[in-house]
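User: I need a structural model of ABC transporter permease subunit from Agromyces kandeliae for a docking pre-check later this week. Nothing fancy, just the predicted structure tokens so I can convert them on my end. Input:
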Amino acid sequence: MVITSGGATGTPVAPPAPSAERGAPLGAPPRRAAPLGPRREAAWRRRDRRWGYVFVGPQLIGMAVFVLLPFVASLVLAFASWDGLTELEWVGFANFTAQLQDELLLRSIVNTLLIALITVPVGLGLAVVVAVALEKLRTRTLYLILFFAPVVTSTVAVAMIWQQLFRADGVLSGAIANVVGIDPPDWLGDPRLALIAVCIVSIWSSLGLNVIIFLAGLQNISPSVIEAARIDGAGAWRLFRSIRLPLLSPIVFFSSIVAFISSLQTFDTVFVLTANAGPDNATRTIVYHIYDLGFGRFEFGPSSAASVILLLLTLVITAIQFGAQKKFVHYEDADA
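Assistant: Understood. Predicted structure tokens for ABC transporter permease subunit:
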């Protein structure tokens, strides 16, 4: 049946579109379908969050127990006198005053800074040279494995091997004596050579890691920059000095910070390589001084004060490096 506007037959009138819901006004747009239930969405989100806590939890617990808790304990013990058995006694800044006047701490600071000033520039310089030499070598994978082997080897094992080499009747001393024509040097018994022996072991142990880092930095330099310099007539040395080395400076800056911090924490090499940081405390470092006070004499207050002094020394050296990086660190995007 056709209904017209006047009640009789005539022009048909289309019936109104059915509403999406009852009670909705005529002509209203249909409502969108309701999303998934909030309970179901919240359930899988809560499940994923719980699994995230399960995976992150062991790391957070380990960091809290082995990093945060000892750090807070060291700060507290630095202002106290305690031997681990008797009652803790607050002494204020007496531990810091005594340590700053202790000749052993001052000797340890000097030895540690000497190790850092020798191993960092020499080690990074050798790593850059080796990385440049291996850059175009097709069989560099084999050499990288050989250079990186000491990095993944236990420091104790490395120190024990070098201890045999540094003996007066060892291979290294014998080779030097035969080539130079002198008596075999006593590397670990001579106060003038013992610190150099520690530096040699440190440089040899960290060389492989720095070589891989610098090699990756060299390969990341844009080939267009190298090609433009060659078109302008730059030779190999000019190319390295004016292009490669400046663009490698961010990697050098990063490696120098890591190497300095690692050098300031030198302990295991000295502990295994020499006897009691000898001879005559020639290889005594700050960390060895902290160990000797805490676990040799059970003076945890002075030991904690020395550790705080090491922290402040590390922060000062790192701040100096960050302040100086504006003068020698160049970035390819910024210079472009």
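Before docking, keep this in mind: The two ends are 81 Å apart (CA to CA).
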